[in-house]
Structure formats: structure tokens, C-alpha cells
Request: fold
Amino acid sequence: MAKHRIGIVGGDGIGPDVVAEGLKVMEAAGVEIDRVDYDLGGARYLRDGTVLPDEVLEEWRGLDAIYLGAVGAPGVPPGVIERGLLLRMRFELDLYVNIRPFRAPGHDFVVVRENTEGTYAGEGGFLRKGTPHEIATQGSVNTRMGAERAIRYAFDLAAGRDEHVTLVHKTNVLTFSGDLWQRAFDDVAAEYDGFETAYNHVDAACIYFVESPQRYDVIVTDNLFGDILTDLGGAVSGGVGLAASANLNPARTGPSMFEPVHGSAPDIAGQNKANPIAAVLSGAMMLDFLGESEAAARIEAACHANAETIGSTTEIGDLLAAAVAD
Ligand code: IPM
Ligand code: MN
Reply:
């Protein structure tokens, strides 16, 4: 395999540390990485006001992938880094599905989160801000195209699994967006012969995640429900320290981005305490997407074999690197 040209955004807090372990493990597995480092995130913003320069975004379009640790730092106003860096990356690079796999005991399932629309789109604003009569609206943007491509991705994914897809939404209350999603889901489902489908309201899905996750194979849901549900998914399947994600541009018109589900955890930053497995598994998802399926499978197996290992960030990284090297 040729060297992969990967943009590295370690980011803030524990981000750079877990990314370093991920790179260590990928290299130990024999994968050649040509890394291009980007100093971006909350700390950079606090230093000089930079969030995501246009030139950097343009440069990224020529990369094979982006590997990200975590962004967000105390002292940065809410939304600056989230919207200006992470969401801008997802939207501009059209990373339209966010794939988040989970392993509960004896079972695994995947959440396909729509990644470019919904309440994340940024529709809305203030009227009469700062007055007693102020109004804030935050709309949910749902295009037929956006819902349909996420749903189609979920069905294609399920084709290589148990051929079972569950739509999670809140169609009983969100009667406009829910209706669009349900019709798109039914129309796509009709193209996949023999597949089983299910529907859960998002509140009920929270109960099922805890009580009976075995009912799931592939779940497809909107951006905000997917955000919330996948933190719960992490919590019920070994902790968010194990939860990996892939922000994919399945059309491959640009690089995809791979990052752990967890945040920058400033409270434990710099203490060599963070579990790097979520970042290492995200690296495995990246390798798989880049065609390095053999190395990806080896890394994944090592992570799962060590999912309960207690150790420091670097100890776990070293252990995984040794496991994939032979
Ligand atoms: C995630 C994160 C992000 C999100 C934040 C940091 C903007 O929570 O990747 O799940 O809400 O999507
Ligand atoms: Mn989240």
C-alpha cells in the first residue's frame, strides 16, 4: 500500500495524547503514514484567534483522511470551536454520515448518524435579544436528499451484517421532519429485499439501549438524536473511552475524518490517564476506509482483547502496538 497522507488534528486536552497512541499503533501494524500536523482547537483559538483558516480547509481537500483527537477548551465561548472547526469540517467536506459502532456483551450494533443537517445546520436566530421579549429559534433542517443518503448508507451497511435496520426518531411529535424521515426510510427499505426494519421513538430507544441492545443491528437517526444516543451507546458498552467514530464522505469527493466520540476531558488532560482505545479504534476505522482492511482488523482485535485493561494512556498504547506488531 502507498503511504497515506493524513491530516492530524490532535486538538485540546487529552486529544493529542490519544492521537499519538493511535498513530503509534497504526505504525506498529505496518501502515505507512505521511502525517501533516495542524495546530487547531481551543488552545490555538485562545492564543491567536484562529479557528479554521480557509487555506487549511482547501489543503485538507487533497488529503487521504483526517485523524482528530478532541477539540474544546475551558475559556472558549460555547460554539466557537464546535461550529467553527468541527461542524464546519463535517459540512464543508460533506461528511454526511457519522458511523459509531458499539459492542455490548455478546453483541454489536452500529449507529448511523446523519451528520450535516437537523438542528446542527444552524438555522435560526434571535429577535429582540437582551430584552424581556427576546425570542430564540433554532430550526431543524431536513432535506429529503440528506435523510435519504444517510438511510441508504445504513441499509448498505446492514447488507454486510444482519440485514436489520431501525429508524430512530420522534415521529409522534416532530410530525414534519419525522414524516419526511419515515417516508424516506420506507421508500429506501422497499429497495432492499428481505431486510427487516423497525422503528423506535428516541425516548424508547434510550430504554432499549440499556435493557435490550440485542434488538439492534444498524440504527439510522438524525443528527441530534444520534449525538445523544451515541453517548448513551458508549456508556452502555464499556464506556465512552472505547467509543470510536468515522465521519464519512462515502462519495469520496474529499477526505473523511476519524475521531473518538469522547471530548477533550480537560480535567484529566496531561495526566497520562485517558484510555486511548477509542482513538485507536477510530484509527482502525480510518485504515479500513483507506483499504487497509487487514491492519484495521488486527488493530480492532487487539483493542477488543484489551478493552478491560487498566493502564495509563501510553501503557495501553504500547500494549496495543506490541499486540499488532507480530
Ligand atoms: C460529537 C460531539 C460534537 C457533536 C460536538 C463537540 C460539536 O459531541 O462528535 O458527538 O455534537 O457532534
Ligand atoms: Mn456528542
